[in-house]
Design a protein that fits this description.
Layout (H helix, E strand, L loop, with lengths): L1 E6 L15 H22 L4 E4 L11 H13 L4 E4 L10 H10 L4 E3 L6 E2 L4 E6 L24 E7 L19 H5 L3 E5 L5 E4 L2 E3 L15 E7 L7 E6 L4 E9 L5 H8 L9 E11 L1 H14 L5 E11 L3 H7 L4 H13 L6 H22 L1
Parallel strand pairs: 1-2, 2-3, 3-4, 6-7, 7-8, 8-10, 13-14, 14-15
Antiparallel strand pairs: 1-11, 5-6, 9-10, 11-12
Helix pairs in contact: 1-2, 6-9, 7-9, 8-9
């Protein structure tokens, strides 16, 4: 029997430069903390091996503290064994990285840098396909087809990259053969690259990133607990929780008569969960200026409760009448500005982004006038 934890795409050291304040640091620390969570899940489930299917590091030149602290954390959880595969972000092309890792590697860490069998147990063999470059342009798992193993051995493949249309970098290379497990007689093929957990078939799985780093997959970070009863047996694959932060896309569709505050409250998570949540509210439909101003105010009021909260109003159209414009001004420069912004927001010849900018500007103008008049 072979039992192990399958994880990948930790992207240790990721900078998260699109955020500000202390959030990038919190997100980086959460990625480092994943190592401890994986080890905890291994202990809870009686597992002594964790397979990392590539992109353990976010770049080919991770900072020394990122690299060394990762190895220190892995060493702390001995005798659990970690098998680290080069991915496209930390490929073998980064010779300095893998030389430094080899010089510092603790006894319980195996660097799977060569396409050759690695014994996991007396009855299980790992066949790794390390990434040679960021985009190798060929199927590096092909060697597994002819890899010799003892009769009756459990064959486990470990690879990183695109299969079918599951390419995290959207390059569409579809390099790894979808039926590699069948071709190579693998009992399980552990894949990395796609950040959402997905089963390609009963023996081929992407585990997903153990800590979310984008809104694309919109599900908690997980790893996979894999049980293979013996050679030829269909593996039992169980999702196990590992994430600290939730990245959520919240769709808010409004009609003109809706109360945006009530609709928003129904979408937002419980207050205590918000500190660990990055949420993107995607508004669509139509609403009046007063309701749109209220929605913006409610988002601003709720934002401090969240790790990050943003409102995407690109798909939300303004339903504006003369009374709304009269509240801004009945004549003069402010009314002219309001009329111009309303016209731009409804101009089909303009891009959706430009119309959204005009709508947001009109909303801000309306909110400013309302605030001054109070």
């Amino acid at each position: 029997m072979a039992r192990f934890v399958h994880s990948s795409d930790l992207h240790l050291g990721k900078r998260f430069g699109n955020f500000s304040g202390d959030l990038p640091g919190r997100l980086r620390e959460a990625r480092h903390a994943v190592l401890g969570k994986l080890a905890e899940q291994a202990r809870l489930n009686g597992v002594d091996t964790i397979l990392l299917a590539g992109d353990t590091f976010d770049t080919e030149t991770p900072a020394a503290d990122v690299r060394r602290q990762a190895l220190t954390e892995m060493a702390h959880h001995a005798p659990i064994r970690w098998v680290v595969l080069p991915g496209n972000h930390d490929s073998l092309q980064a010779t300095e990285l893998w030389t430094l890792l080899a010089s510092d590697v603790p006894d319980n860490v195996v660097l799977a840098t060569r396409p050759e069998p690695i014994g996991l147990t007396d009855s299980a063999v790992l066949l790794p396909a390390p990434c040679t470059t960021r985009r190798p342009g060929r199927d590096l798992s092909e060697w597994m087809d002819g890899a010799a193993t003892a009769a009756g051995a459990i064959r486990i493949g470990l690879a990183h990259g695109a299969i079918r249309t599951f390419s995290e970098d959207a390059v569409g290379t579809e390099v790894i053969a979808p039926d590699r497990a069948r071709r190579a007689g693998l009992d399980y093929l552990a894949l990395g690259d796609w950040h959402g957990a997905i089963a390609v078939d009963s023996r081929t799985h992407y585990c997903g990133s153990p800590e979310q780093d984008r809104f694309k997959h919109d599900r908690p970070g997980t790893a996979l607990l894999v049980d293979v009863a013996g050679a030829g047996a269909v593996p039992v694959v169980t999702s196990i929780p590992t994430g600290s932060f939730a990245w959520r896309t919240l769709d808010l569709h409004l009609l003109a008569e809706d109360d945006p505050g009530t609709a928003l409250d129904a979408l937002l998570p419980d207050t205590r969960d918000r500190r660990q949540t990055l949420a993107q509210v995607v508004a669509s439909g139509r609403t009046g200026l007063a309701a749109r101003t209220l929605l913006t105010a409610r988002i601003e009021r709720a934002a401090p409760d969240f790790a990050w909260l943003d409102l995407d109003e690109t798909g939300l159209a303004i339903e504006c009448d003369v009374g709304d414009l009269d509240r801004i001004d009945r004549a003069g420069a402010l009314r002219e500005a309001a009329d111009a912004l309303l016209a731009e927001s409804e101009d089909a010849a303009r891009s959706a982004a430009d119309r959204a900018i005009a709508s947001a500007a009109l909303t801000r103008l309306y909110a400013y006038v309302e605030q001054v008049s109070q």
